[in-house]
Design goal:
By secondary structure, the protein is α+β, with helices and mostly antiparallel strands. It has 26 helices and 22 strands. Helix content is 47%, strand content 17%. The strands form 6 sheets. It has a 6-stranded antiparallel beta sheet. Strand 15 and strand 16 form a beta hairpin. Helix 7 crosses helix 8 and helix 20 crosses helix 23. The longest helix has 26 residues. The radius of gyration is 27 Å and the shape is globular.
Amino acid sequence: MTALHIDFESRSTVDLKKTGAFVYAADPTTDLWCACYAFDDGDVLTWRPGEPCPDDIAMHVIEGGELHAHNAAFEAILWERILGPRYGWPVPDPTQWRCTMVQAYALALPGSLEQAAPAAGLDIEKDSAGRRLMLQMAKPRKTDPLTWWDAPEKVERLISYCRIDVEVERELGKRLRPLKPSELDLWHLDQRINGRGVYVDRKLANAAKRIVKTAAERLDKRMAAVTNFAVSACSNRNQLIAWVRERGLDGIESIAKDQIEELLARDDLPTDVREALEIRRQSARASVAKIDALLNGTDADGRARGLLQFHAASTGRWAGRRFQPQNIKRPDLEDVDSAIDIIGTGDIDLVDMLYEDPLNVVADCLRGMIRAAPGRKIVAADYANIEGRVLAWLAGERWKVQAFRDFDAGEGPDLYKVAYGRSYGIAPADVTKAQRQIGKVMELALGYQGGVGAFATMGVNYGVRLPVPEVEAIRDAWRAAHPAIKQFWRDMEDAAIEATQTPGRVGKVGAVIAFKRVGSWLFMQLPSKRFLAYAYPEIRTKEMPWTNDDGSPVYKDQLSYMGVNSYTRKWERGFAYGGLLAENATQAVARDVMADAMPRLEAAGYPLILSVHDELVTEPKADHGSAAEMEAILCDLPEWAAGLPVAAEGFEAERYRK
């Protein structure tokens, strides 16, 4: 089938990063400098505003031809909101689009064209000057009166930059694997979800902003008073670090969240230092940024769109954009609905009188700023402990799979008690509340070959702090209680190494996971027949974080591959061990289970508006459906997941909530 490759260069007074593409494209100042395009391997051509839609493009669209672009969602939105209504171009059906950025994500490559192309092996030179020009011309020289950087030589240089992008996107597409049909359908559904958006309670959001502003000003005054004006505002990080050092804590290098938590756990802090750190912790909420992101991206109809990124994680999971509902904290308040009513007044004095920490209350209300539109309701459901269930199922840890089934049937205790009891030979009924909390941290931290560090990091979140020898004993007990999972780690690592060393040979793990090296890629086949990708795999010798009994270093062959570092976001070489591969497989399978349910929810009258980790959020008509029906749809498994014990917990309400 003939493919049309296309790229736009645009301009606007609107900040695209702050608003997202939908609000950007709807603004009357937004327009195109040009569209550059090519059919298959043909010459790259240019269209300029004022010219009619090229006949070959019009015919291609009308006949249902494929349209290829990098970050195709942007081109699709500008086409729908500008090229169609303003310039008379026929608007393509969303299913005609193909996206090389999504294809790159599916191969665990970087998302940007500038990074994806060289990562895929294309020999291209960075056009830094062209990029600077593009960024300059995307904004006006002056906004009153509106004046653009429209000198003819600049426009021609920008068109040249756009033409190169078309050529690079076209060549990149040849290096990438097309999405399998079910994944392509899922991406098209994702585009409908992003186009549908969420309905925003703008009155509540604006009231919350006023409260945040006043509360922040009051905290700044308290900080200045507590530090005798050595720290003028809570945001002055360097001033606070210097002051804390002067008060006797010389080794302090950071006041990041985890560092503050560690400091506040100490018994020897001076009273004023403790108060200053607590003020800093209160002030460091992300509420303002999230409220602004939600409001800035809200269209005239009250809906915020484009909040999800398909396949942003190498496992296939979605990520958030701008508002990012995926990283909103769990509420501390039990009665969030009452807090929403109080925040909605915008009265800081009332909030201050009723609550100790106004900023924390606002943070607890963030989810509630997403509400059902008139005549609709929110129905959401979350897979319960899906990763623990999938891991046990993949590894063949039969006793644990059965324990999940018993719990779901109301015949067994919860799995945190089971995990602790199994590890220490205690009946679950005899596990104390404190022991159950340890069992919870065990389950969350140790399933992917985590050790002392993983347990300690997870323990901070649940108030579990134990000495290293005790954590080591807990780790060993958990592993002894999970022999199949422990073997699964080994088998995953061995199969990946075997497949990497012998291209074309399939390394199997049980009957559900398989590895195979093809060219520059190591692929992990999942039960759904989808693949995870590891680029440029090699087997390299690596020093381990533990030593021999005599203290000498331990070296081991490990799988090494190129990927996007989740912390630095840089394309670099990393290592994979059995636990990490098990984590990848587990999260990918959990994602595939959820993805399988999404089109069935749509067909049953539950229009999806968000995907948040293992939760799906829908907005059906007010008189349609129920949380129980949605739970049943989520738990209706595909054939490839037969035997996987799943459960879902849902709710229906006026507002989104946790």
